[in-house]
Design brief:
By secondary structure, the chain is mainly alpha-helical. It has four helices and no strands. The two termini are about 60 Å apart.
Length: about 110
């Protein structure tokens, strides 16, 4: 019994070490790929604000105002609509065969 337990623990330890070893290898590969693919020139990656940001801000403001106007118009339209009644659920269509079989089952069951 002790041999079986030690064998099971050895297999578990080997499996866990393989899993964590694989994770560490993938982590290392991701680090290497990240260092290879990032731009070397840090200054080129930094975006400097320029004078063109003011027209972009004005354009963004106009987009926000337009989106607000559309949202208000849709809300007004929804409020003005009359509430619609929910349709009645469809009735169960039972064939003659189903009706006979259900009746037979009810007869066999009897009264409670």
């Amino acid at each position: 019994m002790a041999e079986n337990l030690s064998t099971a623990l050895q297999i578990t330890a080997i499996g866990m070490s393989l899993v964590f070893g694989g994770i560490l290898i993938l982590w290392g590969l991701m680090t290497v790929l990240l260092s290879l693919t990032t731009p070397k020139n840090k200054e080129a990656a930094v975006v400097t604000p320029s004078k063109t940001s003011e027209p972009n801000e004005a354009y963004a403001r106009k987009q926000q105002v337009a989106a607000l106007a559309v949202a208000l118009a849709l809300a007004q339209e929804r409020d003005q609509q009359k509430p619609q009644a929910f349709p009645m659920p469809p009735t169960a269509i039972v064939s003659a065969w189903q009706a006979v079989m259900r009746t037979n089952q009810l007869k066999r069951r009897g009264t409670r």
